């Protein structure tokens, strides 16, 4: 998961801006991205909300949106609604900033720093700005631009900001002149930035924007879109009319809008007065403009329609989740015969209520506002339209047209069906999703070649050294790689340490990404998915090969680790590169038996990795992003332990098996070295000795080995050393000598592999693999767990010969196969292979898993 910061310059809990933010943010949410929204209370000076705390606003929005704000803004001395209004009047209105210049500059810098601190705290990776160009608060806008530039440079991000203007000077009350006249000389122009992609709602808005700001290079058209689902009466909303005192049989006109003078709700009151028996429902916040609300109530009384007009307060947005408490705009539409949008001529840009009516299958009536034709009329949508340039209030011709539509159900149905079909074509969700996919903001510099993914959980003690080793990589420029630290619910100072490191080392991009589901597999997948998605929008570098690299927070990488790994991957053209892993011998001084068991395992691994490429271990490997995506990324599997589902530990191995099974090559990079933290042995030595380091009975899960008690520092007894070695070699041999050829039998035709096994053994292994595959009726052995049974069977059948080859290649001290399970003592030799099958297929007891150690030990 990563985080999106949305900021609305509207300063209201529900408006067209907020509704459009919700729709756009849903696409990010569905990608697993956390969503934060600042409603802009601390920006707009004319909404009576400056510094007002949030109360019930969250109830109007989907639960996946976290209402947020830059809390520290309230403490900035001098920053007030009075100052914002003064700047708008003097600086924008008259172009005189002489009196306020120093104050504005100081406040801009302070605001910028507060914004940066908030984004850093949350780990923001995407920003969505709604209406930031409209110069209601140029101090905040300038601070936002500066924050974007500094944040983008600090974290080496790509285009991580989507800046959408719903209103601009020529669309928002141009007749008032409060912003001046075109070309609006005192309004700050939109900044051309590598970090910002601007969005206009339609072609006319784009044309006018470029006429005003021709320097912009990233400006796209992204129309508002709507969820096309016909409104209907359901058990949830059946009581809507009764709850608001509206008789069931009367015609109902819906008006959902802000209650402000510019929306011209007075026109609806005059319309209702001319339509006896018809009711009007106005959904909007009466407290936003108390004077206008009072005026409308008095007008309703003077027109004699107060009993037919319901001011219903705020409703949840049109696209609010079904089942939320209270009513939404969609519930209102289920009971309405018409939607009204009789707004001011020069106030609207898009007219969302019309789009929402169309998408809900409800006819609408509208005024001919300035951009109506550009958005709806020219596309062929049908509706009664009031020409407010000729008639300020509904005239009789317009009233008659509306009355006919209210009384003629067939005409309403045909009009609604026509508009609904057109709406799907022009404003369907799919169009927005396609455009967002093209614009999907990938905050990564175009020179970045690799992301190092580092899952962490309470690693405060180890993290400084790990990050330092990643920072001081030799042979590779820091602009060519980044670090993606995935925090898996740490409760210590892990995240604070990471953020402090990022601040102190700005030349290495470091992203902190949260993953709420516990488990290193989940964290690794989140980090790699995050990096993969972002790498595809690196500008000029988007088509270059990109590598996803896994590291471990309790291990140390050598100074040449990354450069050697990337160089090996480039020269070998393999899909996966596997590192060399080692322990520091000095840590085991005084424990020669334990060190002997470890070093023999590592020697065996070096031989088989050189032959087969090995399999990735989370401690250090790289994978080509395209190969990663082709196989579906890291897959999380779950097992039952003590009645609860837990995620399977071996995601790295299983991922490598998927890649190998897809026909891709795995390469061993012996010069790319990772030092394993000895705590894996020190604090789990008893489990290592008994082969239960990661569970038993087939349950393989991560255990936390950071325990309070001191590590065992004495050497193993001879019996313990033998048992530890036997479990290590039993775990190693099926995985590293049998599994590669099981997955890729063509390896048995390779000269080096034939030399290792010997021609006769290689031939028999190939034949036996084909027999087992046919007997088990499998198409391949890549699905998780499906390879274990055949690996175990082949181990038992060929153990003596396999160990002979290891002794010949690695050294005589490898010895002979450990004793067979006692259950084979009474099995006749001629039936040995038969009972090996039963033993390995017995999933109920898990005995085979326990025999083989149930996970790697060294």
Describe this structure in words.
α10 (352-360) crosses α13, α25 (751-757) crosses α26 (759-776) and α27 crosses α28 (832-841). The protein has three domains: 3-221, Rossmann fold (3-Layer(aba) Sandwich), CATH 3.40.50; 240-427, 3-Layer(aba) Sandwich (Rossmann fold); 555-851, no CATH class. The chain is 41% helix and 13% strand. The protein is built from 29 helices and 23 strands. With 858 residues, the chain is an alpha/beta fold. β8 (252-256), α7 (265-273) and β9 (279-283) form a beta-alpha-beta unit.
Architecture blueprint of SSEs:
Blueprint: E1 3-8, H1 16-29, E2 34-38, E3 65-67, H2 81-93, H3 101-122, E4 124-130, H4 138-154, E5 161-164, E6 196-200, H5 203-212, E7 219-221, H6 240-243, E8 252-256, H7 265-273, E9 279-283, H8 290-303, E10 309-311, H9 329-335, E11 338-341, H10 352-360, E12 364-367, H11 372-375, E13 385-386, H12 396-407, H13 409-427, H14 429-439, E14 450-456, H15 463-471, E15 481-487, H16 494-504, E16 510-514, H17 520-535, E17 547-551, E18 556-557, H18 561-572, E19 576-582, H19 592-612, E20 620-624, H20 625-630, E21 638-641, E22 644-647, H21 651-661, E23 666-675, H22 679-682, H23 685-690, H24 718-743, H25 751-757, H26 759-776, H27 788-809, H28 832-841, H29 847-851
Parallel strand pairs: 1-2, 1-4, 2-3, 4-5, 5-6, 6-7, 8-9, 8-11, 9-10, 11-12, 12-13, 14-15, 14-17, 15-16, 19-23
Antiparallel strand pairs: 17-20, 18-23, 19-20, 21-22
């Amino acid at each position: 998961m990563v985080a999106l910061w949305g900021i609305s310059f509207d300063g209201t809990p529900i408006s067209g801006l907020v509704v459009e933010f919700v729709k756009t943010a849903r696409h990010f949410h569905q990608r697993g991205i956390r969503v934060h929204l600042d409603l802009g209370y601390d920006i707009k000076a004319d909404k009576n909300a400056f510094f007002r705390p949030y109360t019930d606003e969250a109830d109007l929005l989907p639960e996946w949106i976290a209402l947020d704000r830059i809390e520290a803004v309230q403490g900035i001395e001098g920053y007030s609604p009075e100052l914002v209004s003064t700047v708008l009047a003097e600086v924008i209105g008259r172009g005189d900033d002489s009196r306020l210049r120093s104050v504005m500059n100081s406040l801009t810098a302070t605001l910028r720093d507060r914004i940066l601190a908030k984004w850093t705290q949350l780990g923001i990776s995407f920003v969505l700005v709604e209406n930031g160009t409209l110069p209601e608060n140029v101090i905040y806008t300038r601070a936002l631009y500066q924050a974007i530039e500094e944040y983008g440079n600090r974290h080496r991000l790509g285009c991580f900001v989507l800046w959408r203007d719903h209103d601009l000077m020529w669309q928002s009350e141009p007749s008032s002149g409060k912003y001046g006249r075109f070309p609006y000389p005192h309004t700050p122009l939109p900044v051309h930035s590598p970090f910002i992609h601007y969005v206009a709602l339609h072609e006319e808005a784009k044309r006018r924007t470029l006429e005003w700001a021709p320097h912009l290079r990233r400006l796209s058209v992204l129309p508002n879109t709507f969820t096309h689902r016909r409104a209907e009466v359901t058990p949830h909303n059946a009581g809507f009319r009764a709850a608001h005192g509206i008789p069931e049989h009367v015609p109902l006109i819906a008006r959902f809008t802000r209650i402000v003078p510019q929306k011209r709700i007075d026109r609806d009151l005059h319309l209702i007065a001319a339509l006896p028996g018809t009711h009007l429902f106005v959904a909007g916040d009466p407290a936003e403009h108390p004077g206008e609300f009072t005026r409308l109530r008095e007008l309703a009384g003077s027109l004699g329609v107060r009993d037919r007009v319901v001011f219903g307060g705020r409703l949840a947005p049109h696209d609010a989740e079904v089942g939320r408490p209270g009513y939404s705009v969609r519930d209102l539409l289920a009971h309405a015969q018409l939607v009204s949008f009789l707004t001011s001529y020069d106030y609207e840009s898009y007219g969302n209520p019309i789009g929402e009516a169309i998408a809900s299958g409800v006819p609408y009536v509208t005024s001919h506002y300035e951009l109506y034709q550009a958005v709806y009329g020219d596309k062929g949508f049908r509706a009664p339209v009031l020409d407010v340039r000729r008639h300020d209030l509904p005239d009789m011709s317009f009233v008659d047209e509306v009355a006919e539509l209210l009384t003629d159900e067939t005409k309403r149905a045909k009009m609604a069906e026509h508009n609904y079909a057109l709406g799907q074509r022009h404003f369907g969700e799919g169009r927005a999703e396609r455009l967002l996919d093209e614009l999907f903001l990938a905050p990564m510099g175009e020179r970045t070649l690799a992301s190092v993914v580092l899952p962490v959980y309470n690693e405060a003690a180890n993290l400084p050294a790990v990050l330092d080793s990643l920072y001081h990589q030799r042979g590779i420029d820091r602009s060519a790689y980044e670090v993606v630290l995935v925090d898996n619910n740490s409760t210590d100072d892990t995240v604070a340490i990471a953020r402090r490191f990022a601040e102190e080392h700005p030349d290495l991009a470091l992203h902190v990404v949260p993953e709420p589901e516990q488990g290193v597999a989940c964290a690794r997948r989140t980090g790699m998915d995050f990096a993969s998605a972002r790498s595809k929008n690196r500008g000029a570098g988007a088509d270059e090969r990109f590598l996803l690299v896994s590291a471990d927070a309790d291990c140390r990488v050598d100074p040449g680790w990354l450069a050697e790994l990337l160089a090996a991957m480039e020269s070998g053209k393999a899909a996966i590169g596997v590192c060399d892993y080692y322990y520091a011998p000095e840590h085991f001084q005084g424990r020669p038996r334990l060190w002997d068991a470890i070093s023999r395992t590592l020697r065996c691994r070096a031989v088989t990795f050189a032959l087969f490429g090995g399999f990735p271990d989370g401690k250090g490997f790289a994978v080509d992003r395209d190969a990663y995506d082709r196989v579906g990324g890291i897959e999380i599997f779950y097992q039952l332990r003590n009645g609860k589902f837990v995620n399977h530990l071996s995601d790295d191995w299983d991922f490598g098996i998927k890649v190998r099974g897809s026909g891709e090559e795995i390469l061993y990079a012996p010069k790319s070295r990772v030092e394993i933290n000895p705590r894996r042995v020190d604090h789990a030595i008893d489990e290592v000795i008994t082969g239960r380091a990661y569970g038993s009975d087939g349950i393989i899960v991560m255990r936390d080995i950071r325990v309070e008690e001191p590590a065992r520092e004495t050497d193993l007894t001879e019996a313990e050393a033998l048992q530890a070695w036997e479990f290590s070699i039993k775990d190693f041999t099926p995985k590293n000598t049998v599994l590669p050829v099981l997955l890729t039998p063509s390896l048995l035709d390779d000269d080096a592999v034939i030399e290792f096994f010997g021609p006769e053994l290689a031939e028999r292994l190939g034949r036996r693999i084909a027999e087992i595959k046919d007997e088990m009726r499998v198409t391949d052995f890549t699905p998780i767990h499906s390879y274990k049974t055949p690996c175990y069977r082949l181990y038992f059948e060929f153990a003596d010969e396999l160990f002979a080859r290891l002794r010949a290649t690695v050294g005589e001290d490898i010895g002979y196969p450990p004793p067979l399970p006692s259950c084979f003592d009474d099995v006749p030799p001629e039936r040995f292979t038969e009972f090996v099958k039963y033993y390995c297929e017995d999933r109920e007891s898990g005995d085979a898993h326990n025999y083989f150690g149930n996970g790697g030990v060294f």
